[in-house]
Amino acid sequence: MNGVVSLLAGVVFGLALAAPPGPMNAIIAEEAAWRGWLAGLTAGLGAASADAVFFVLAYLGVVSMVESLPALRAAMVGLGGVLMLYFAYGAANGVRASFRPGGGSRVVAEESKGFRKAFVLALTNPYQVLFWLTVGVGLLRPGTLDVLSWLPLVGADLAGTFVVATGSPALIVGFFAGIGVWIAGFPASIVLAERRIETLAPVIAALSAVVLAGFGVYFLYDAGSFVYAATA
Q: What processes in GO biological process is this protein linked to (predicted)?
């Protein structure tokens, strides 16, 4: 029974981590809107693969090196910011192409690069690095996890209502299963919505460009602030 509870807790926690708006979901939504469910799923698998890499590194203790090397973290943040701005530019180009005669079909026909984009961005995303430095490492060690406290907006109100033991294989399996549910279900919802609203694809691409550009500028500012503080 405890194994089932840990499994379900992992699913809830995986969904809570994957669902909030951010650069990964922006890429998934853009790929699904332009190229269909499979392309959106593939992009999601790119982000999930990065989490799997971080999981292995956390298990081996390598992830903790980032915490002890602030300059490395700043470099990762800066690289992530540059990549996000680059992908934002690509998303904006997709919007412009959709308004040219036949432009939309050319965008759809292009080879999907969602897996590589999401994978590289996830590896340089400081939020995911921070997660695996703190909560992710905690998932591997015997202890407890307040699952619902990590939910966006309502987490503070639900703190203490669903606490499970960590260090369980069932919890880890459930965690990645929750991520899997999201990366399969989210692009499916985008595709269904796009079929109902034909102009949705360029709107999603525009929103994706805005989200990626916003995070890119913020990450570059964060990296620049570290460099300024270190040299001042």
A: amino acid transport
pTM value is 0.74
Q: Mean pLDDT across the stretch 116-141?
A: 79
Residue 154 lies in a domain: yes
Report the Cα 131 to chain-centroid distance in Å. 11
Torsion angle, CA of 116/122/125/129, rounded to 10 degrees?
Answer: -140
Least confident range of 64-68, 130-134, 172-176, 207-211: 64-68
Closest among 48, 49, 4 to 182, alpha carbons compared: 48
Angle at 199 between CA 193 and CA 204, to 5 degrees: 70
Cα dihedral 140/182/121/82 (nearest 10) = -130
CA 164/CA 25 separation, integer angstroms: 28
pLDDT, tens digit, 9 for 90 and up, residues 52-79: 998 888 888 776 666 667 777 777 778 7
Q: How many whole angstroms separate alpha carbon 123 and alpha carbon 114?
A: 14
Look at residue 103 and tell me if it is in a domain.
no
CA trace torsion 194, 198, 204, 205 (10° rounding)? 120
Quote the pLDDT of residue 167: 77
CA-CA-CA-CA torsion sign (29, 31, 33, 37): negative
**Residue 83: domain span:** 3-98+108-231
d(CA 24, CA 87): 11
